[in-house]
Structures are given as structure tokens and as C-alpha cells.
């Protein structure tokens, strides 16, 4: 058994978690690129851009959902920005990541007395069973790896979970369209093209803005969408809506 080093500071502990998380992320990407979607966690600049919907609504307690949290690189940014009294639901389907996220929530120095308002769910977001509505949803899911019907289900669920006027942020790496042209399979290229068309349709209907994060590796576009204050159009609903209770 190793002796305990009492000189370890909360900051040192957090930095150690980040370094270990980077290696874990790389291993999980090698194991399953379909659910991990990248070779490294989101950088600080990308995390900052993704969490803009939280900053834009600061000044009151918020209800926030983070989907596809991975090892917690965006989660850490969120934890520093959540207004007092806010609630955060963190959704991650990878069980190895969820264990790490629960450890992050349990040990984060900024969460003294507040961890009860933060919950980690091991689930796919389209299957998330909650009755809460969210002011903001932060998504780091790898849409480029999903089939069109999966994207439709996820985006429809996001809209259902948002309060009227609520904000969604998600990102896409730049250059994926060019990379798609290099795919050896025509069926894979068609799948990527159809998936992008689904996302483009949602952007046409709900997008409020886009920013490009050049400082990330690779660079990424961050899209912000707003749920309308009226009823959702039929195309924006999925079968999950029956469980929500409009």
C-alpha cells in the first residue's frame, strides 16, 4: 500500500484526473470509435464554446443536461459555471466513463454541499427516463458516427427535454465532409451524407448561431439551437414523446 501524500492539493488532484482521463479516452476510442467518436477529450476552448447556453442564462438557477460527457472535460467547465441552486444531469452510455464521472462529482472541490444536485446517468440519451425539463442541453455526442435514424431520435429527444425557449449546443469536427469522400465504402459515404442532412434540417428550423473553435484539435463548429416557445412541429417529435406527457 502506498503512503498517503497529504500535500496533494485539490488542483493537483484535478490535473491528475485530467491526465488519466486523456489516456482512458484514447483507450476507449480504440475500443469503440462509434460511441467515443474522437481520439482525445474536448479541449478547453471547445468546452467554453459548448457551455455558452449556460452563461447566457446566468443569474438564476438552471436545469442543465450534459449528454456524452466522456471523461468529463466539458463537465469540469460546466461545474465552474453553474449558477447557485442549479441542477445538472450528466448522461454517458460508457460504463467505464460513468464511473469516472461519478468520481469527479464526488471529489470536485467546487461541489462541497452541492453534489446532491448533480446526477450521473448511465444511459443512452434517447432512452433517458426523467420528468425534468432543461434550460440548456450540452451535447458532445459523436453524431458523425451515427446513422440518420439515430440522429433523428436523439435530436427529437433533445427538443422534447428542452423547456420552450431552451438552448441546445452541439459540435461537429471540421473536415468531416472531405473525409467522407475518402471512405472506401459507398454505403458509408451515403450514410454520412444522410446523417448530415438530418442535422442540417434541424439547423434550418432551430439554429440561432454557429461559432468555429480553431484552437481545438481537430477544429470544430459549435451550433446553438433554440426550442420554439410554441408546439413542436410533427417532424420534431419522436416516439419518446409519448412518455414525456405534453
Please give a quick description of this structure.
It is built from 9 helices and 7 strands, in the order H-H-H-H-E-H-E-H-E-E-H-E-H-H-E-E. With 246 residues, it is an alpha/beta fold. The longest helix has 22 residues, at 10-31.
Task: Describe, in plain words, how this protein is organized in 3D.
The protein is of the alpha/beta class and 246 residues long. It is 40% helix and 20% strand. The chain is built from nine helices and seven strands, in the order ααααβαβαββαβααββ. It has a seven-stranded mixed beta sheet with strand order 3-2-1-4-5-7-6. Helix 7 runs parallel beside helix 9 (186-206). The relative contact order is 0.14.
Task: Give the key terms.
single chain, 246 residues, alpha/beta, seven-stranded mixed sheet, 9 helices, 7 strands, 20% strand, disordered N terminus, disordered C terminus, methyltransferase activity, methyltransferase
Amino acid at each position: 500500500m502506498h503512503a498517503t501524500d497529504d500535500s496533494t492539493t485539490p488542483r493537483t488532484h484535478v490535473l491528475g484526473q485530467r491526465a488519466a482521463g486523456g489516456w482512458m479516452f484514447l483507450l476507449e476510442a480504440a475500443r469503440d470509435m462509434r460511441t467515443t467518436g474522437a481520439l482525445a477529450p474536448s479541449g478547453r476552448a471547445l468546452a467554453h464554446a459548448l457551455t455558452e447556453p449556460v452563461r447566457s442564462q446566468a443569474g438564476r438557477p438552471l436545469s442543465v443536461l450534459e449528454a456524452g460527457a466522456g471523461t468529463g472535460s466539458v463537465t469540469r467547465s460546466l461545474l465552474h459555471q453553474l449558477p447557485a441552486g442549479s441542477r445538472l444531469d450528466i448522461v454517458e452510455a460508457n460504463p467505464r466513463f460513468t464511473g469516472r464521472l461519478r468520481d469527479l462529482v464526488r471529489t470536485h472541490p467546487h461541489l462541497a454541499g452541492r453534489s446532491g444536485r448533480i446526477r450521473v446517468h448511465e444511459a443512452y440519451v434517447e432512452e433517458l427516463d426523467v420528468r425534468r425539463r432543461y434550460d440548456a442541453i450540452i451535447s458532445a455526442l459523436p453524431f458523425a458516427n451515427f446513422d440518420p435514424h439515430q440522429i433523428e431520435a436523439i435530436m427529437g429527444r433533445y427538443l422534447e427535454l428542452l423547456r420552450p425557449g431552451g438552448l441546445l449546443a452541439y459540435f461537429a469536427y471540421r473536415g468531416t465532409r472531405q473525409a467522407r469522400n475518402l471512405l472506401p465504402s459507398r454505403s458509408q459515404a451515403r450514410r454520412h451524407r444522410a446523417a448530415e442532412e438530418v442535422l442540417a434540417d434541424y439547423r434550418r428550423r432551430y439554429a440561432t448561431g454557429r461559432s468555429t473553435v480553431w484552437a481545438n484539435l481537430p477544429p470544430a463548429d459549435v451550433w446553438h439551437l433554440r426550442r420554439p416557445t410554441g408546439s413542436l412541429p410533427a417532424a420534431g417529435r419522436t416516439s419518446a414523446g409519448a412518455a414525456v406527457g405534453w
